[in-house]
């Protein structure tokens, strides 16, 4: 295995001298996981075998035909954001343009069933959107002296030139009604308007800054650090600076007329915020009424499944909770995965694992082969290095691709024999997966089970697929994640994805795993370094840490590992997953807020402040922490090992973390199921309360826009079915 050499300038190199690859400047890289957008990678042509070229041409033809079909039958709104080209009366009548002539009868029956399911779930949220807009229209009519004659109100259309519109206070996407300043263009969403009038603005426009000092190359490996005599700068926040300005803004808005905020809050402090719209309000009301009528005419009843599919052969034990039915997850083979079983568990917010997905893929998913397909012999200098994350320092590092993939297969070591854990996240960084690996993308999507949910273009139960081709779409993948791994839990520097919540539902498939066996010399070195880490922890940890529990914790660790002990020794085992139930989020957050000083983050510094523990992505619960969590708060995650060829389905709203037991290549994709619209909306509300520069702040999903489009598609399908009926 390669080793890392350390030079006096704090730069770390793999291999012998400068013949290796540079790991980066550990001491000065405080830009944690910053994503830099550079020029597009220019791919050169490469030779392919005839069969691959034929299949690739077929995929491209299918894509072109799909685009042409969408151009002929786009679902459009009336408005200015790509939401609008036809009047509403032309689309929601009995003469709907939904074209079902090319669909066989069996598929038409499925489409109707899916449309009934979709409409049943989106209708309550569509009605709520209309209600909130009506309330704002009443307020605007009152401000203009129209009283109850709000129907006479003429709302000006906003000019946005096909671009997404975001609230300047909370960064939430705006799909229709909002308020805007003519003087400076400041825009405010309806939720912020309501909170302002109530004097309780929760949407956060403040910023927060973190200070994680570099303490030398030896500090992450257990060396005791003596702080300088000057006071170390702590985490600082600009939130207090905003409080007086926000209080004044709230006070000025209690009479329902909202002024533009002062310059300190991003406005001009001069104009008034006037009500604007992006789509036709009458169209939206007509859509709601038609959806309500069709929901009554075509009632949806979820029959579920009466069998015990999560307790038999197609199940996997993943926890030791009091209620036995809650300890197993549905885990069918891909050839036996049934949609009705999936829907039953999915509607309860449970993860699902599907086995044996790659039996007939016919493609290599080894990272070296993926890289060869992307690079193709290109001499572009941008292809000469990739940007990875070092899991010990939590900083970005620039690496030569060949050196990174060599470490994937054979491992890398620090001079003290501690394993180096590197990972590529969202790779390729600057391109869409389907653009540079179209054949792999097609195979991946085609292999996914439950296509009604997972197909990004034609899935009738995927709200994201309802967005027309001319509307800006969120990037939901597929994306690849390539990372080193180590079977033993190291305690720091593990190859992990820390606790977080995805923006939507997700499916994650383990495509490849490569085991790197440590030598006996390395195992002894790791034991020695762990003792140094423990001594360092005892010096630095706060008094919150329980005392005198070492022996008990070792025993508890063995008890906890038994759940997945039979799986993680298998040749195909790759990653250990921990997925928490939605109802366990409050106690999980309470635990992390209580014990956060015991966790380490950038440059192995202790975490000194928490914003939102399930969104910060700064915590990984070790076995010790998971046991203490269950002992003190009575909760535990579903814990299981993912094998090569297994797809893990994670419901929106379920916090989860992952540790790689081996070097792993995973491909993940997000989707939006009708059953989980509520959690997606809750996540959007969480994001708007985060500081402006928080990693999870941006509303990438635009769930409200998806709700409207999904309702429109369901209405058109049912109108078409009504004509045939």
Automatic annotation (TrEMBL):
Primary location: nucleus
UniProt keyword annotation of Nucleus present: yes
Subcellular location field: Nucleus
PROSITE patterns: JMJC
GO function terms (MF aspect): chromatin DNA binding; histone H3K9 demethylase activity; metal ion binding; transcription coregulator activity
Domain JmjC: from-to ranges: 444-688
Superkingdom in the source lineage: Eukaryota
Record key words, sorted: Metal-binding, Nucleus
Gene Ontology cellular-component terms listed: chromatin; histone deacetylase complex
UniProt GO BP: regulation of transcription by RNA polymerase II
InterPro entries in UniProt: JmjC_dom, LSDs-like
Entry's family note: Belongs to the JARID1 histone demethylase family.
Protein name: JmjC domain-containing protein
Source organism: Rhynchospora breviuscula
